[in-house]
Sequence to fold (134 residues):
Amino acid sequence: MRTFKTVTVALGSAAVLAAGTSAAAADTTADREWTTSYGTASASGTSWTEAGTIFVRPHVIKGELSNSGPECYSAWIEFTQDLTPGIPIKNATQCGAGTTPLNFRLALPSVRTVSIKICRGSADTTDCGPVSWL
Fold:
């Protein structure tokens, strides 16, 4: 009798896990609008999380980086996973007046935060404006 109960519990647990995976895989978050600016540059767009597995779901960011001045500005994207900040990733740079598209997609574990900020120059994140959470 003991073996039968163990098998029943194991099969029930497997069914719950399979149902949770299907629900997570079908879930896609709605577009979230974002905007940020610094100096003579501004960026805006939308971001969303695509359907994936229970463990990995791609995060997509689309928008534009605009600059009205003569200097270079860059858009940097950073994610935090389990309270550990990731390395900022430069996605676009606009030197002088004009507009550059932002297009970013990264498959990340489900539990994380993602942010974007604009920094003066194109080499590092030492002179930056406020963070916009995506």
User: Anything to note?
Assistant: Residues 1-26 have pLDDT under 50 and may be disordered. The CA atoms of residues 21 and 54 lie 5 Å apart.
